Amino acid sequence: MFRNIGEIVLLFWRVLRALPHAWRQRQKVFDQFFEIGNASLLMVCVLSFFIGAVFALQTGPALAQHSLSSAVGGVVGFAIARELAPIMMAILIAGRIGSAMAAEIGSMRVYQEIDALRTMNINPIDYLVLPRVLAMVVALPMLVIFAILVGWFGGAVVANYNQQLEIPFAAFFADMKDFVVLKDVGNGVFKSFCFAIIIGVVSCHQGLTTIGGPRGIGRSVTKAVVNSIVLIVIFDYLITLLLSIFLK
Amino acid sequence: MNAANNSASGVGLVVRGLRKSFEDQEVLKGVDFAVQPGEIFVIMGPSGSGKSVLLKHLIALETPNAGEILINSEPVSAPETAAKYRMALVFQSGALLNSLTVGENVGLYLTEHRLKTPEEIQQIVVDKLAAVGLKDVVDKMPADLSGGMKKRVAIARALVIEPQLILYDEPTSELDPLSSVVVGEEILRLNQRTGVTSVVVTHDRDLAFGVADRMAVMGDGKILIIGTPDEVNNCKDPEVQSFLHADFKRESKNKKL
Ligand SMILES: Nc1ncnc2c1ncn2[C@@H]1O[C@H](COP(=O)(O)OP(=O)(O)O)[C@@H](O)[C@H]1O
Ligand SMILES: [Mg+2]
Description:
The complex is a heterodimer. Chain A has one domain (2-12, 42-239). Chain A is 85% helix and 0% strand. Chain A contains eight helices and no strands. The longest helix of chain A is centred in the N-terminal third of the chain and has 40 residues, at 26-65. Chain A is elongated, with a radius of gyration of 20 Å. Chain A starts with a helix and ends with a helix. Chain B has a domain at 1-86 and 199-240: 3-Layer(aba) Sandwich (Rossmann fold), CATH 3.40.50. In chain B, 37% of the residues lie in helices and 23% in strands. In chain B, the strands form two sheets. In chain B, strands 6-7-8-3-9-10 form a six-stranded mixed beta sheet, with helices on both faces. Classes of the chains: A mainly alpha, B alpha/beta.
């Protein structure tokens, strides 16, 4: 996969240069945006609720044993906003939307639809890649904000009803407010913005370079998802490192 | 051919020393020919002889390993050439965009380049579909059409561009005999109406001899002969003869009857 990094960076550069055409393509950006929302909102809801719930279930009793129940809200809120929501949603969207993008563009490549666009002087970057990357860059951060809220709620539900914790909702969120600041949410949203670029560009690149007929489409889909996830995890570390250095 | 002097119409095409290899397989082994503005030039040849690859080079979808392609003396791969001359390729498979309706496919060039209002585009789409003998398909999806219908939609999509050079890749394969005649007539009519330079790749001998001003026969990445239909038909080259006159051998059976 690392052989393709150069090509992926080049594609990203070409998308940036196509940005002035974004307004012309706004209809396609909206279409893609709603497709992403439609396909993923319910899954995001369920997934983030249970991530918040299981995280509270794992950490809560351990903290309570050391009479740190007042830290549960803070720990859950902090971990979800900064780490769990951005990375889990990115992986979910890579699997659900990145795969679909690679499959769609890959089949257009294999069935010569992209060649047909080129003969009509329609730039595939403007027509296919730009709207998808833009929609992803807008949609994923919004989904992550939503996931953070739902995840907090999931944690609060467990904290409230778990026999060992029994922290009321009001106390849970008050503890969280003392510990988690807007910067933590901003941090998570910024990460998801970077992940969105990775998913969009990697999936479109994989689609555009599909070879070997219909069987190649399957290979491209797998590679798009795997490469996206690997890059997301690596960049998660790098971004966290940079933010911890520059934003004390 | 007489419309060729009109500046808006057909362009001249020159191919010199064209070579192309995919990995270790040499597909085009030095192809040379020239097509005059407004001419209908037919290329015949067995499957796998490199005809589709050649057509993709003519519209700059592939880059050659050696040789050059000139449109009115300008290299086809230069960005200015693509902007200056309107060229269209009718793909062997049609290559319609499967996510768009037939009407959106046919109007795509005009819509994307904002050349007409939506109402004008709708009218043009209906007209061009009618020109290839299709009606009531505007709102259908390509997946719901037969192979032959897709190909005619692809021709309509090319007509919308009002090209100065049009390339047809086996336009009548998959078509019933009646539709083949419609397509052949449309190739001729478009050429006579606009003076478009036309290159037609086909196995269909009726179509080839019906539309060609001049023709070439390809074999194994090279051009075996170029000439008028009569010259090609009377060519003594055994490879050309065996291709042009290949037929089922029914004589023995007929004799018994
Ligand atoms: N993109 C490609 N990569 C590798 N080989 C190709 C490619 N396109 C065509 N070929 C090969 O080139 C040869 C000629 O193909 P083609 O031009 O499609 O033949 P035809 O004359 O039937 O249209 C075939 O052997 C085909 O396998
Ligand atoms: Mg072919």
